[in-house]
Amino acid sequence: MWLCAFALTMALSCAQALASTAGTVISNTATLSFDIAGVRHTVSSNTASLILAETLDVSVETDAPSGPVPEREECAVGFVVVNHGSGTETFDLTAQAEGQGASVLFIAGDTDGGQVYDAAVDKPLANSQLTLGSGARTHVFAVIGSDCAKAGTIRLRALARTGSGVPGTVFPGQGDGGGDAIVGKTGADTNGTVTGTNLRLLAKSVQPSLTKSQTVETSDGSATANAGAIVTYRLLAAFPRATTGVEIEDPIPAGTAYVPGSLTLDGATLSDAGDDDPGQAEDGSILVGLGEVAPGTRIIAFKVRIL
After folding, report:
1. 3-state secondary structure of 147
2. Which member of 84, 99, 142, 234 lies 3.0 to 4.6 Å from 57 by CB, making a disulfide possible if both were Cys?
3. pLDDT tens-digit profile of 218-258?
4. How far is Cα 89 from Cα 87, in angstroms, rounded to an integer?
5. Nearest 5 degrees, angle CA 27-CA 28-CA 29?
6. Side by side, which strands form the sheet with 25-36?
7. Sequence-separated contacts (24+) of 286-290 with Cβ below 8 Å
């Protein structure tokens, strides 16, 4: 007959005090220790693991008003977006001026952290999207066109891209680390508003700005920048107010060749020759002459092939 003594212990594979960060893997393995004929033995259980779900929560706060805005004044209205969720999340932002005589041109990020809009520094958010880590907060600016004093209520909405809806709604496998995502108490969809003529005047500069981005395409579908790959350049020109004498020029980079017929303005094809339309692709550069431009944004795109 075996003479046995048993002891059962739990060995945690991660720290006893775990931060509730979305995507964290919590796993544990039990160990069974026992004696047989005076010899100590141990066997381990299988390891049970789970991934902490991501909570989706967001709020939008407004900067405190700082007095009436003069009529015909261009401005930027400040908001603070806070990620109250437990994981990193991307939010879709939309802004609207509900009064007559003004409109939101675009939403800009606070690039330099100055909490004051500077058109030379604070660029429009790409696709009006903002990515924040858990607990992070940042300023954004709804840049208003002319006659800001008549804008009425300015409303900024933040919507979690992973999902939103009734608190407790689960999106299986959509959270950080492959865990579930769960809608928190805000519904992952919230609004912030500034009402009346007491809009905070945050604009430091109303100069136009130009933001350039690029994408790479290859014949095998990858995004590797090698010989033969096609690079698409996209220029986003933002005009906070009416501007005259506008020209945009971009030299074709060394080591590349312009793809004929690829020049577009706001999605419409422009001819490469210097003719009646505003664009041309000659003498090693792209040139688009817009002349007088109303408040808003214009998008120029063209392609080159890597040699």
Report:
1. coil
2. 84
3. 887 777 777 888 899 998 888 877 788 899 999 998 889 99
4. 6
5. 140
6. 4-12, 25-36, 39-51
7. 286/248, 286/249, 286/250, 286/251, 286/252, 286/258, 287/247, 287/248, 287/249, 288/247, 288/248, 288/249, 288/263, 289/246, 289/247, 290/237, 290/246, 290/247, 290/248
Q: How far apart are CA 66 and CA 5, in angstroms?
A: 76
Question: Of the candidates 186, 217, 214, which has an alpha carbon nearest to the alpha carbon of residue 81?
Answer: 186
Assigned token pair, 72: 């015909």
**Count H helices, E strands: the chain?**
0, 25
Q: Which residues contact 288 (CB under 8 A, 6 or more apart)?
A: 247, 248, 249, 263, 265, 270, 278, 279, 280, 300
The predicted-structure confidence for 277-287, as pLDDT tens digits, reads as follows 899 988 888 99
Taking the C-alpha atoms of residue 75 and residue 141, their distance in angstroms, rounded to an integer, is 9
What is the edge-to-edge ordering of all strands in the sheet holding 54-56? Answer: 54-56, 181-183, 170-171
